[in-house]
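Hi support team,

I've been running sequence recovery on a batch of backbones for a student project. Most finish fine, but this one hangs at about 90% for roughly twenty minutes before it completes. I'm not sure whether the input is malformed or the queue is just slow. I've pasted the structure tokens below so you can try to reproduce it. Let me know if you need the job ID as well.

Thanks,
M.K.
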């Protein structure tokens, strides 16, 4: 055997190893990393190709209403907004905001959404279409009814978490923000039209949080619906002064929710205790960021275990204190009761379709877990129904439909309160849950109620 045999084998092994490394590197850059390189806006060659790519459209749930379209100007594709104010907080106002930013890859057909076969067969490149869960007519109605106010409307299908309405006011027109002057006026507007109040607005919940307090009391067997309380209109609860708009006298827990008695729920909260209350807030996911394709904010709550914990808990239990939540969070809470105690995960994108119209990605509804039992959810549903039939939420009555609802008035240090209405229907088999907040309103029933009722009615097919 030749003395050069081992050296030749070693040399061959070196060359073979080098060949394998080069092959793997080439495969990585051409197969694994290629979609991301093509999608990178800093890639000048990709940028030129994308400027010639027709973007896909964003549609509402009906598949025909265009939320975001495109038009060709001077050889370049630009976004178009068929109903600018109705969908502005969904679309954003340029490619760096809203769904234009977060859905960039599917809309331009890059990354994992690339479709080279379409380019080969058609001789041109087109992005994917996106279908949202948004109900176009209900979105339009909520936008019209909120015009001239500040606030938000959120509606969710409690069965799967699909967002049916996502409206923030004041709205704005993305088409007029092209000039520096117009954008500067927009950016410095004291009413903050760019802020999506539905997902980013933090509000004191007021009396609508009483439905959660009632549920915790029932779930922990601290109180029952028929247990009696006494309200004199002004009392000290656990050493803290609590006032009601009027003296309710003797009333049950069910009556207290229907009449929105602060003193009763302050008493209930103090009895539940801080640790249990905090635990159930986590179970309800009340303070969670919704993690949608649009930026949102998590809520926040007082430190119930600190030196002033008892005082904070007493006020938190009837919706005041330092708790701050988004309208989306309270819509999700309402949907939890409608779902029988299971917390649905809200979602906004229903489907993504390639340039040939084939569905390549579809939403898979998920849930965040069970917050309370079916029995407790049913008991709270009965209490919310009583609020509609004989309490503060009478404005939510819809002929032929059973509605569960709760009003809320969140007092502020100055100015008129922020007012709420939460509702879902039909109680027997809920198909929609709605949360409405209006800044500087008169009361939940007077200001938020009519808006919530009409949106609810439309979503129910009325």
């Amino acid at each position: 055997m030749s003395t050069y045999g081992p050296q030749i084998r070693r040399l061959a092994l070196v060359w073979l190893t080098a060949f394998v490394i080069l092959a793997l590197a080439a495969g990585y850059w051409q197969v694994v990393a290629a979609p991301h390189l093509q999608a990178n806006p800093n890639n000048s060659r990709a940028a030129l190709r994308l400027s010639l790519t027709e973007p896909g459209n964003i549609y509402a749930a009906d598949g025909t209403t265009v939320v975001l379209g495109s038009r060709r100007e001077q050889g370049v594709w630009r976004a178009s907004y068929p109903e600018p104010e109705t969908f502005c907080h969904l679309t954003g106002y340029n490619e760096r905001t809203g769904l234009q930013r977060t859905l960039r890859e599917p809309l331009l057909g890059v990354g994992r959404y690339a479709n080279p076969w379409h380019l080969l067969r058609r001789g041109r490149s087109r992005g994917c279409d996106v279908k949202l869960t948004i109900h176009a007519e209900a979105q339009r109605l909520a936008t019209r009814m909120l015009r001239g106010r500040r606030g938000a409307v959120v509606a969710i299908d409690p069965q799967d978490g699909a967002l049916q309405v996502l409206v923030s006011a004041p709205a704005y027109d993305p088409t007029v923000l092209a000039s520096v002057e117009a954008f500067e006026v927009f950016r410095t507007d004291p009413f903050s039209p760019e802020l999506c109040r539905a997902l980013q607005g933090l509000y004191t919940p007021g009396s609508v949080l009483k439905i959660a307090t009632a549920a915790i009391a029932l779930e922990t067997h601290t109180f029952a619906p028929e247990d009696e309380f006494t309200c004199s209109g002004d009392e000290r609860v656990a050493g803290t002064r609590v006032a009601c708009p009027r003296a309710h006298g003797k009333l049950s827990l069910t009556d207290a929710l229907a009449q929105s008695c602060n003193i009763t729920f302050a008493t209930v909260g103090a009895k539940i205790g801080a640790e249990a209350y905090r635990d159930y807030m986590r179970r309800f996911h009340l303070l969670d960021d919704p993690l949608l394709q649009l930026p949102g904010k998590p809520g926040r709550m007082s430190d119930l275990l600190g030196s002033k914990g008892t005082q904070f808990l007493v006020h938190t239990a009837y919706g005041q204190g330092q708790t701050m939540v988004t309208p989306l969070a309270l819509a999700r809470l309402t949907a939890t009761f409608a779902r029988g105690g299971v917390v649905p995960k809200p979602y906004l994108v229903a489907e993504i379709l390639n340039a040939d119209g084939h569905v390549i990605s579809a939403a898979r509804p998920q849930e965040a877990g069970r917050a309370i039992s079916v029995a407790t959810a049913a008991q709270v549903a009965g209490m919310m129904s009583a609020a509609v039939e004989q309490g503060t939420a009478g404005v939510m009555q819809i002929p032929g439909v059973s509605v569960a609802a709760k009003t809320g008035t969140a007092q502020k240090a100055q100015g008129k309160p922020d007012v709420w209405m939460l509702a879902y229907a039909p109680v027997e088999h809920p198909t929609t849950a709605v949360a409405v907040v209006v800044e500087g309103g008169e009361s939940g029933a007077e200001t938020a109620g009519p808006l919530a009722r009409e949106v609810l009615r439309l979503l129910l097919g009325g």
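--
Follow-up from support: It reproduced on our side and the slowdown came from queue contention, not your input. Residues 353 and 359 are 4 Å apart (CA to CA). No action needed from you.
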